[in-house]
Amino acid sequence: MKTETGGSHPNKVKLFACLGAVYIIWGSTFLGMKIATEKVPPFLVSGLRFLLAGSILLMIGRLKEKVWPAPRQLLSAILVGALLIGIGNSAVALAVRYMPSGLVALIVAALPAWFIGLDWAFFSKKRPAALTLSGIFVGFVGLFFLFNPFSEDTVRDYPLWPIIIVVAGSVSWAFGSLLVQRLPMPTQITSTAIQMLSGAVLSLLLSAIFEQKWASVFEITPVTLSAYFYLVFLGSLVGFTSYSWLAKNAPTRLTATYAYVNPVVALFLGWLVGKENLTLHAVIASGIVVAGVVLMTMGKQTGLQNDQI
User: Fold this and answer.
1) What is the Cα–Cα distance from 255 to 13, expressed in whole angstroms?
2) C-alpha pair distances (Å), 167 with each of 16, 244, 252
3) Taking the model in full, what pTM does it have?
4) pLDDT reported for residue 300
5) Distances (CA, A) of 129 to 134, 141, 142, 292, 301
6) What is the mean pLDDT of residues 183-211?
7) Distance, CA of 280 to CA of 274 (rounded, Å)
8) CA 243 to CA 232: how far, in whole Å?
9) What DSSP letter does each residue of 81-107 carry, written as one string?
10) What integer pLDDT is reported at residue 308 of this predicted model?
11) CB of 41 within 8 A of CB of 211?
């Protein structure tokens, strides 16, 4: 594997730094959104977050890439941004306002299942490997064990309806991600900036229609403001930059580990910092879900290797 420095292996210090950033920062954004949405409506938080992050990234893209996208590339980036950020991220922001952030992260952890299913149904038409299918089954068993609506023994202090919102957002995120590989897209930084800005516009439109509480931004506390800037600069900018470097310079199997580390980090931080209740039942269920995601990831990588042989 070639790296940006021309060596045969990626710089180990940078590798671990980027992995740590993606593990911790992306895992912590669930709690960050939880804190930010305590005072400000979730669609408004999502819109303002990506409006600022996208504007900064667009300026960086103009300075570094110096290429403005063609009309088709621009439209593609706008569509993908609406699916990923306008719907996908906004759904998570809405859910964490009503549910513990760690549990929302566990639902999002099932994202590989939607990638695999949508790719099978609409794009590659390739049946997933047996290991992948078993991982999907195990993951959903874990989620059912966690949120079983038929259980009479489970005591909840949160509603279950946000689960539907998160699932819809995950499907939108997966579909948008699959489209990226099949649509004409702008250069990398500019593309991501446009996606953030188009997602921000859609989030703000949803806020104007459903929330209509924009005056709440004048009542925010220093804690809320700190959470907002954390989401903008660390969650959106540092996290994205780290993941982009890993995608180009690290083994795919290693990069994919963020999918099952993030929910563990989110659960721990939600319990430690957010004072969210973490029961033995939730710990067991999260272990089952993470095991399912590991199997999904392993099965997907095995399939890719088999395709290359």
Assistant:
1) 15
2) 31, 25, 25
3) 0.85
4) 62
5) 9, 19, 20, 14, 10
6) 93
7) 18
8) 15
9) HIIIIIIIIHHHHHHHHHS-HHHHHHH
10) 28
11) yes
Segment 73-90, tens digit of pLDDT: 999 999 999 999 999 999
- Ramachandran sector of residue 156 (left: φ over 0; alpha: ψ -120 to 50; beta: rest): beta
* Residue 221 tokens, joined: 């506390």
- Strand residues in 50-180 grouped as ranges (E): none
Q: What are phi and psi of 289, to 5 degrees?
A: -65, -45
120 and 61 Cβ atoms separated by less than 8 Å: no
Residue 194's SS3 state is: helix
Q: pLDDT digit string (tens) for 218-277?
A: 878 899 999 999 999 999 889 877 887 786 677 766 777 787 788 889 999 999 998 888
Tell me the percentage of the chain whose pLDDT exceeds 70.
Answer: 90
What is 231-300 written as a DSSP string? Answer: IIIIIIIIHHHHHHHHHHHS-HHHHTTHHHHHHHHHHHHHHHTS-----HHHHHHHHHHHHHHHHHHHHH
The pLDDT value recorded for residue 79 is 96
Residue 80 to residue 86: CA distance in whole angstroms: 9
| Residue 36 tokens, joined | 């930010």
Whether residue 267 contacts residue 105, with contact meaning beta carbons closer than 8 Å, is answered with yes
What is the spatial distance between Cα 103 and Cα 274, in angstroms, rounded to a whole number? 12
**Phi/psi at 15 (5° precision):** -60, -50
What residue segments make up the domains of the chain, in order of their start? 12-126+155-256
In sequence order, what are the residues at sequence separation of 6 or more whose Cβ sits closer than 8 angstroms to the Cβ of residue 221? 39
Cα separation, 76 vs 185, in Å, equals 6
Give the whole-angstrom CA distance, residue 219 versus residue 107.
31
d(CA 232, CA 222): 15
Q: Is the pLDDT of residue 3 over 70?
A: no
Q: What's the alpha-carbon Rg for the chain, to the nearest Å?
A: 19
